[in-house]
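Whiteboard transcription, Tuesday session. T.W. wrote the C-alpha cells on the left side:
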C-alpha cells in the first residue's frame, strides 16, 4: 500500500486488479468508498473539510423553469444568486431550500480546482498524521 500511495491514481489502482476487482474504474470506486467511510468516522477530518469549505465555497442558486409561474415569482430574488457560503444568511438559505423543494430553484456549490486540491492535500496530511499544508 505504501508504494501505491506514491504512484498516480490510475497506476496505483491497476495494482489492485484481480478476481474481485475487474478493472481500474472498480478499484478507484472502491478506494473512494473507503476514503468516504474514513472521512465519515473521523471528526478531525470532517472538521478540516468543514473549516476550509465554509471559507471558500460559493453557494449558487438558479431558476428552474417549467413550473408554476406564480410560484416561481416568489423566488425571483434567488434566480441568479451566487455568494460565499459564509456570507449567506440563514433566512436566504432557507428560502432557497423552499425554492428547491418547490422545483423553482436549482442549488449548487462551486469550489475552485485549486481549493479542491488544497482540501485533498489537507485531508491526506491529517489522515496520515502529518501537519496540514498551508494555503
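and on the right, the sequence the group agreed on:
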Amino acid at each position: 500500500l505504501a508504494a501505491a500511495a506514491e504512484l498516480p491514481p490510475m497506476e496505483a489502482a491497476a495494482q489492485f486488479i484481480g478476481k474481485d476487482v475487474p478493472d481500474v474504474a472498480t478499484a478507484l470506486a472502491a478506494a473512494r468508498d473507503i476514503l468516504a467511510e474514513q472521512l465519515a468516522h473521523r471528526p478531525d477530518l470532517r472538521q478540516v473539510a468543514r473549516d476550509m469549505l465554509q471559507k471558500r465555497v460559493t453557494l449558487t442558486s438558479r431558476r428552474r423553469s417549467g413550473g408554476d409561474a406564480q410560484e416561481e415569482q416568489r423566488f425571483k430574488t434567488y434566480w441568479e444568486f451566487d455568494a460565499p457560503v459564509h456570507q449567506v444568511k440563514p433566512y436566504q438559505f432557507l428560502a432557497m431550500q423552499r425554492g428547491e423543494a418547490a422545483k423553482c430553484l436549482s442549488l449548487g456549490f462551486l469550489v475552485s480546482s485549486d481549493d479542491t486540491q488544497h482540501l485533498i492535500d489537507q485531508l491526506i496530511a491529517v489522515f496520515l498524521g502529518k501537519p496540514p499544508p498551508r494555503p
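Someone added at the bottom: The CA atoms of residues 89 and 95 lie 10 Å apart.
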